[in-house]
Design brief:
By secondary structure, this protein is mainly α. It is about 40% helix and about 5% strand. The protein has 21 helices and 7 strands. The protein is elongated, with a radius of gyration of 22 Å. It binds a DNA duplex (16 and 16 nucleotides) through helix 15.
Length: about 475
Amino acid sequence: MCFPPLSLDPVRHVAVCPSDLQQLWKEVAATQPVEDSIKQEGLDLTTNTSNSTSFSAAKVSPPISHHSLPNGQSAMLTPRRDSSSSHEENPGSHPLYGHGECKWPGCETLCEDLGQFVKHLNTEHALDDRSTAQCRVQMQVVQQLEIQLAKESERLQAMMAHLHMRPSEPKPFSQPLNLVSSATLSKSTSDTFPDGLPHPPTSATAPITPLRQGPSVISSSTLQTMGAIRRRNPEKFCPPISSELAQNHEFYKNTDVRPPFTYASLIRQAILETPDRQLTLNEIYNWFTRMFAYFRRNTATWKNAVRHNLSLHKCFVRVENVKGAVWTVDEVEYQKRRPPKMTGPALPLPPQCCCHLLSVHLLQAALAESNFPLLNSPTMINTSSTSGMLHIGHDDVSSTVEQVNSNGSNSPRLSPQQYSHQVHVKEEPAEAEDDSRPISLMATTNQNVTIPEDRDLEEELPVEDLS
DNA sequence: GCGGATTTAAACATTG
DNA sequence: CCAATGTTTAAATCCG
């Protein structure tokens, strides 16, 4: 089975990094129907899925079924919906129609009424290669979200267990999503190497390539034909590396996805995470491999890049130590590297830049669609993911690292409000996953997000005024 | 189109 | 000598 190059690759390599889904959609949406068309009757959306991901979810997820909608549209929706969708049972509404707009991923076309929408659906989202590809992507999205949800659920369970808080019911939010067994999922994603390193789920398979490159379509075919691939622009709009890392730590650790950060920022992060603010080259290497599944292969390449960056950037200072040389970060220099570009009025953020905001948004959307009220509370969705966004305005300086503001060179950044404006998620000002978060989590489960008083000054930023 | 930033590759030097 | 470390150059690409 061959798929159109442009549509296939985004699917196969769908990063489903929480951050890239929207962009993914854009790209797939932009994909032209390809000559190597898939015969309509022969569409096998599952094939690619199982090939494209080594997550067990791919196997466990039931094969997709092709529902025929009254309008003749083949609704190859994600497995989770089966027949339980309240939308489908409700005449006068459509699962892909809401708030006056088409909910087809990446579409958002305004439709005044259902009739118009149906017409739009039939014309714009008919059964063709593009729609098929989008459908596959959606499957991937859902699977990833399910996996992530399962993991977060498990984490929550563990947290609550640790704090002697019994959840009202076991695995409260696993069922509605047609989740793959949480046990299976968590197993598949939390396997560890003998050395304790997490087992990259995608192990020997092609890496999941983050499609964060902006508008340009980076399909794997493109990747293969292109020489040096830019994975740039990570810090410009995306959340700070520290919070992004904190929130998607497990993701990057377990998924063979290239982290959307520059080598320089990663190196710096590695160094700043240490108490001494200094690391040997080898320790930097270790940090990379420890933190990112992606860096557990192609070592020669990225290690070379690391060394290159260390030498190239003035912000990295080599210090002779008793036991050899260590590398430190000259924060002033680092800040200099990036001139203040974010001044001025609130920038409309491209969707792909709202990394975990997006992930939360997507999760929410997915969960909302699944009519799972509890999880519609942002605080219940990967609390660590919803959190930390308040750090966005602080660049990627780890919250554990004192911001070097004294030099006055800290450039203006997007304010948290600006970020949160993009996605209607109310953040909880939390960052790491290992502090007292569960308490506040419980406190906020019932609805509103309250700012725990134990937050540092970073959380003093106003958080309301969210769209 | 230009220039800065980034990535990748590679050659070379230094060091233990 | 070898591997690790460090420096430098060059090319390709992205993006403002």
